[in-house]
Amino acid sequence: MAKKIAILTGGGDCPGLNPAIRGVVLKAAKLGYECLGIQEGWKGMIQADARPLTPDGVREIVGEGGTILGTSRTNPFKKDGGPEKVLEAFKTLGLHALVAMGGEDTLGVAARLHKEHKVSVVGVPKTMDNDLGATDFTFGFDSAATLSMEAAERLVDTGRSHRRAMVLEVMGRHAGWVALYTAIGAGADYLCLPERPVDVKELCAKVKAAHDKKKVALVVASEAVEFAGDKKEERLDEFGHMLLKERGVGERLAKIIETQTRIETRHAVIGHMQRGGAPTLFDRILGTRVGVKAAELVHAGEFGKMAALKGTEVVGVGLEAATAKLKTVTPDWLRLSDDLL
Ligand code: F6P
Fold it and tell me: pLDDT tens string for the chain (341 positions)?
């Protein structure tokens, strides 16, 4: 009987997950394995909830958004007997290995399960936030930032017609990569990132100067931007993250700009639209490559590893190293954006 590899997708979904699932299944079949799809991330693993994934079943999902497996933000380490239930599911489902696709949370769980419970797990990095260490890019990011760049350009069109300042709030949690790429790609006039507190005086001066010249100004802001003097009393999810959608960064910035510059200002929040839709070509290829690599890592018995993009190569790196530290926007990139914006 063929050995079984289970695949799960955890945390926020993003374009590229289906190509990655397809990559694992097609390569695993070539190597002589059968695949099972765990439903809704670690929640499904705790409940041993799985269905077969066949090469024919995944062949046509390369351009589909979302994840055919469903996802959740369940943390087994926050559930009574969670890790033990994962080990039990390994036995019930007769698994040889598990491929966990996720960001810092899902892969952080995978790293702990491997280290503390010797679980045969391999990681696949995904997140539109692009904030995972040990890989140059994560799939999902290119699709998300391409969409927000296009949205920003549309805001400029309407803003120019109405002689307004426009603020676009984008996702990206505590790393400003999505905002940074959106702002540079769309030629924004100001960029607000979680990596540095908003300088209201500078923001308003730049908006005013841009509006004076062009009759429109564009500000791109990351959802997790900090304002000096704010109290931290936000609600947290199972992984201890703030629920950022409740912060209203775009709206706040628009009010500040309008009050201080007297320029009529509107804001838009792109939010979860950035997580849906067909993956870009880049994300289809990257998803496919890391999926294929994950199947190869399983076959080589290299558990506790993650398939990572390093330069132009996809290689195996330690899951622990990959999840140890969040990859935030570096001083080099901040300097580059300061030179442009
Ligand atoms: O981590 C990806 C992400 O899209 C963040 O950018 C965002 O803050 C968060 O997920 C939103 O999560 P949810 O889908 O739980 O609202």
Answer: 899 999 999 999 999 999 999 999 999 999 999 999 999 999 999 999 999 999 999 999 999 999 999 999 999 999 999 999 999 999 999 999 999 999 999 999 999 999 999 999 999 999 999 999 999 999 999 999 999 999 999 999 999 999 999 999 999 999 999 999 999 999 999 999 999 999 999 999 999 999 999 999 999 999 999 887 776 656 677 777 766 666 899 999 999 999 999 999 999 999 999 999 999 999 999 999 999 999 999 999 999 999 999 999 999 999 999 999 999 999 999 999 999 99
Paired residues of 5 in beta bridges: 35, 97
Could you tell me if the CB of 171 is within 6 A of ligand 1?
yes
Domains of the chain: 4-139+279-322 (3.40.50.450), 144-273 (3.40.50.460)
What is the Å distance from ligand 1's center to 231 Cα? 21
Annotation marks residue 129 as catalytic:
yes
The residue contributing the CA closest to ligand 1 atom 10 is: 12
